[in-house]
Automatic annotation (TrEMBL):
Catalytic component of the histone acetylase B (HAT-B) complex. Acetylates 'Lys-12' of histone H4 which is required for telomeric silencing. Has intrinsic substrate specificity that modifies lysine in recognition sequence GXGKXG. Involved in DNA double-strand break repair. Catalytic component of the histone acetylase B (HAT-B) complex. Has intrinsic substrate specificity that modifies lysine in recognition sequence GXGKXG. Involved in DNA double-strand break repair. This is Histone acetyltransferase type B catalytic subunit. GO terms for molecular function: histone acetyltransferase activity. InterPro entries: Acyl_CoA_acyltransferase, Hat1_N, Hat1_N_sf, Hist_AcTrfase_B-typ_cat-su. It catalyses: L-lysyl-[protein] + acetyl-CoA = N(6)-acetyl-L-lysyl-[protein] + CoA + H(+). The keyword DNA repair applies. The lineage of its organism: Eukaryota, Fungi, Dikarya, Ascomycota, Pezizomycotina.
Amino acid sequence: MDDWSCDANDALHITVVQPGDTKPKTLSTFHPQFTYPIFGDEEQIFGYKGLIIRLRFAAHDLRPHVHISYDDRFKAVGDTTATDLLGALKPFLPQEAFINLPEYEKAIQEDIDAKTFTPPGKLVLPYEVDGRQYEIWAGSLADPAVQKLLNRAQVLISLFIEAGTPLETDDPEWVLERWTVYFVRSYEKVAPPTPTASSYSIVGYATAYRYWLYQRDRSEPSPVKNDPFPPSEVKIAQLPARLRIAQFLILPSHHRSGHGTHLYTTIHASCIADDTIVELTVEDPNESFDALRDTADYCLLQPEFLKRGVNLNPDPNGAYSRKQRPKTVPTNALIPTDTLREIRASFKIEATQFAHILEMFLLSQVPESHRLAGGTNLARLLIKKHKADDANDRRYYWWRMLTKQRLYKKHRELLNELELIDRVEKLDDTVRNVEEGYEITLGALKDRLPDVSEETPAESSGRRDKRKLVVEDEDDEENEAELVKRPKV
Ligand SMILES: CC(=O)SCCNC(=O)CCNC(=O)[C@H](O)C(C)(C)COP(=O)(O)OP(=O)(O)OC[C@H]1O[C@@H](n2cnc3c(N)ncnc32)[C@H](O)[C@@H]1OP(=O)(O)O
């Protein structure tokens, strides 16, 4: 029976086409990353030999088509039958994808609107990569032209984003506006292959929606009303909101050329320019998106941190000269918390993401020879702690304490279920994993940014306020088990 089974990811070919001299020509072909939403968890198709499911998209307007071919098909034996391919594909593709191939090819070759096609919405950013021109356009999902394109593109979400789900595009207009589905697509402007062809070709797209930010003035009594929602005088799209990136996709043929970064920074720039948006968030980012976002946010924030002299104070509240280590992590004396709050608010970066970028930056300010990556003697540091002779060793000590403080606060419930010794060990392992993840990102950024890690750190502003709580104490500096490698913690 195995002979009749094949890997669904291999069988599915996604092809981007343009009109050619006599019939459509292929611009790029690639396989999906996931087919489990369509063909089940095993991602296997039963009952075909030499199966090819070709999913074509017109390069400019994504007109879709699916074509199935195979050498042989399993003849049913009892209840055992070949996978119903059309039945599996139909819920994921627009009806228009199921016309016959000659009809589709004719539509591509003779598309009289192609020449004048421009992506719906507004041009937000033209840019160039390796001498080729690209553009990012943005439009509201309430625009029917945007809806049409999104409906055609959405199958790609199931095929490339784990647990990604298509958006509902037939919601009432006020919902579509609320999601302000801030929709960004990136198009490559290519020389048209025929006089009537479009010069646009898709590279990727992203959607983002406005998440209403509840800000109640607690001095006012709460007015409970039973009026219809939304009230007619309220424009949902103008209420204070977080912008949340929901789907984000660059086609495999264009990976690692900076398009994802252009798309992300364009969305981020639009947030900064929009007074109604308070911060940018991301829905369930995966590891590669996190890598992209970390590098992009770091490039954005690093110059600001340097300009504002952000660094760790190696001697908070004179701790170095005292015998007793402070009982709590003296956050306000270690880092300029007011300045950082201001930077975070003006760059509209979500709190945990900001903490990651800040930790990464503060780590980079400790010369590498004083960090784990440079082989620093951690055992000795854990004995000397805040009294280490070298200011950079103390800076690194306090970096670990600050990072542990955040991790402890975030995972307090989980950690408090553990015995003290296990808790300490777990936290220590976690901070180590976080540090390793930061070192990977800092390494990836080396070519893009000037290396500032060996610079003399500025002394802190010496604020004295204390903050409650923190990591247990850290005679416990033996830390903890895992909360995962390269964890987003
Ligand atoms: C909210 C969500 O939708 S989460 C889901 C995100 N989307 C997907 O996973 C769909 C499939 N994948 C993709 O669409 C793309 O791989 C993306 C969007 C994740 C990345 O897009 P790209 O255009 O390749 O990113 P870009 O070229 O701008 O990369 C910028 C940096 O991010 C990091 N990066 C990007 N992709 C990866 C990866 N797969 N692994 C590790 N690091 C990565 C690298 O540091 C890279 O810089 P470098 O190439 O100089 O090393």
